[in-house]
Amino acid sequence: MEKAEDSTLSEVELEEGASTTLIENRNGSNNNNTNSDVPDNANGNSKVLKRLETVPDIKRDTSGITTQYITAGIVNLGAFAAGVCIAWSSSALLNTTTEMYSDHESDVIRNQTDTHPKLMLSPIEASWVSSLLCLGAVCGAVPTGLISENFGRKKTLLYLALPLLVSWILVASSPNVYGLYVGRFVGGVAVGAFSVGIPPYIEDIAERHLLPTLANFYHVHFSCGVLFGYICGLVNSTSWLCFLSASVPVAFFVAFIFIPESPAYLLSQGKNSEAKAALQYFRGIDNDVKAEIKALKEHTLNYAKNRVTFKELFTARTNVKALIVSFGLMIFQQLSGIYPVLFYAEKLFKTFSISLTPPGASIILGFCLVSSTYFSTMLLKKVRRRVLLLFSFLTMSLSLGSLGLYYPF
Known about the structure:
transmembrane; transmembrane helix; membrane; Growth Hormone, Chain: A; globular; 2 domains; disordered N terminus; single chain; 3-stranded antiparallel beta sheet
C-alpha cells in the first residue's frame, strides 16, 4: 500500500481564540512503518507532535477589529465633548464681552448676546466662568473609578451625558453669572469623569495588539473637540454656540446606548453569558472567545485577590513612588499653561497685530493641537515617552516665555 503523504491535522484552541495545529512527523521519516491503515495510536511513541504557527488558510473574522475601532470612536465622543467645553470660553467670552469699558474702580464686561443682553461680567467673574470647569473636573474625577466599578463602566459613561447636557442648558439660559458658574462647574464634573471612565472601558474591550492605538483615541478626540469648539465660535451667537456644543453629548448618548457593557465588568458581576455575548460582539461573531473568557475570569479573580487598599497606596514603597510620579506629571501638565491659552485663545490673538481674525487664528491653533497630538501618538512607537515629555515641557516653557515677553509688565 502506498505511503500516506501527510498525517492527520488536529486543532487546539489557544489564547484569544487563535488556533494552531499539531502535526506528526511524516511517515517517510519512519521506515519501519509501512502500513498506513494502522491507527495512529497503535504506533506507540513513533508519533512526534510539533506545534506550528497559525495555519494561513484558516481565516479569522476581522469584523471584530472594525467593531472595536467604531466603539472606541463612539465612547471617545466623551473626550470630544470635553474638548468642546475647554474651547467654549474662548469664543463665548469674546462674543459676550464685545464692549469693555473701564472706570477707576473696576473693569466691567457687558454681555450683548441675544439670550441675556443685560448680563454684565467683571473680568474676575469671566475668569471664574472659565476656571470653574477645571474645579468641577477635579470633583468629577475622584469618585468616578469607584462608581464605574460598582455601577458599571457603560452606565457610568452613558449617564455622564446628562449633566453635560444640563450644563449647556444652564449656560445658554442663565439670567445671571451664578447660573454660568453652576453650568460650568457641572460641565466640569462630567469632563473629569470622562477622563477617568473612558480609558478603563477601552482597555476592557480592546485586543492586546490594538490597545496602544485605541488608547490614544482619547487624546486625539479631545484635541478634535477643541478644534470643533473654535470652529463653532465662528457663529456670533452664544445661544447657537451652546446649542452646537450640546449636540455632542446628545450624539454620544444616542450612539453609546447600543454598545454592550464591558465584558470584564460583567464577569466581575457573575454575568457569564452576558460577558460572553459582549466579548463575541467585540471580537466578531465567527470567532471563538472561550479561551479569552477563561483568561478574563482568571484576571478578575487575581484582581480581586491582589487589589490594593487605600491605605496601601500610601504605605507600600512602590505605590508611593508611582503616586509621586503620576501626581507630579499631572501637576506639571496642569501648570504648563496650556489651559489658559485654550481658554483665552481669541482674546490673546485679539491683542496681536496680525491680519487674521481672532476666530480664524484660534482655528489654526486648534489644527496645530490636533496635528501635534496625532503625530505624538505615532512617535510613541519609536521615541521614548520620557523624551517626548521633556520636549513638550521645554517647548511649552519657551512659547509661554515668549508670550510673557510680548506683554508689558
